[in-house]
Design a protein that fits this description.
The protein is α/β, with parallel strands linked by helices. 41% of the residues are buried. The protein has helices spanning 57-65, 79-82, 98-102, 118-124, 211-222, 239-252, and strands spanning 11-15, 20-25, 35-39, 44-48, 69-73, 90-94, 156-158, 163-165, 170-175, 184-188, 193-197, 228-231. It contains six helices and twelve strands. The chain starts with 10 loop residues before the first strand and ends with a helix. The protein has a single domain (11-252), classed as 4-Layer Sandwich (Metallo-beta-lactamase, Chain A).
Length: 254
Amino acid sequence: MNDLPVAERWFRSQRVTEDVVLLVEDHLDAFFESNVWHVRGAERDLVVDTGNGIGDLRAELAPLVNGRAVVAVATHDHFDHIGGLHAFDERWCHTADADGIREPDGLALTRTDFRPGLEDEIRWYGYEPPERVITAVPREDFDVSGWRTRTTEPTRLLAEGDVVDLGDRVFEVLHVPGHTAGSIALWDPAGGLLFTGDTAALDDPLYAEDEDAFVTSLKRLRALPVELVCAGHSRPFGREELRSLIDEQLVARG
């Protein structure tokens, strides 16, 4: 029997700019929180990363989208960024991470069902593995023990130089491997807006599968004339904090 309360609202939200809203699942152990970004466009909207997929992201976004078409882009294939991807008609990711979305290295909500290695990963980031990932349920009939990250098929595979065109603003796809082989950033050079995924974020350690590629990607991001950084975790931040973060990482990584 489920002993968790039913959440009145699964996401908390923050309007960052007139056109950008940050959403975070609000009833999780802190390690599992990740950022979902909504960008309003003239012809279509953009969702950057989709969280763990536990609550109904499409319903939460409905008042923001207001009937416009939506493109959902995954910055990389980790479970806390692709969980809600299946709910969107347009599901885009980099070619190198496509298999990780088709068959994700997914999440279970109880510690006894965690995949091998997840507890070590949680501790590497400085957290302790919880007995349960969630502190509430999104609806009365939610199956805590049976829930798993959903598989899905990407509808478009992205590469360096592709664009995401919202009608009134265009984001360039930057391939920034290191955190994963297919990690991407989305860059709006006209507005100075950069979505970094987990390649650059504040507060927690930055993990890389490929250190050499990661350092190259960090240097690339540092050179951009950024005004606002929207990362996969942490609050939004600006150019100077991005450069300081990257400089610290470059020193620490030799």
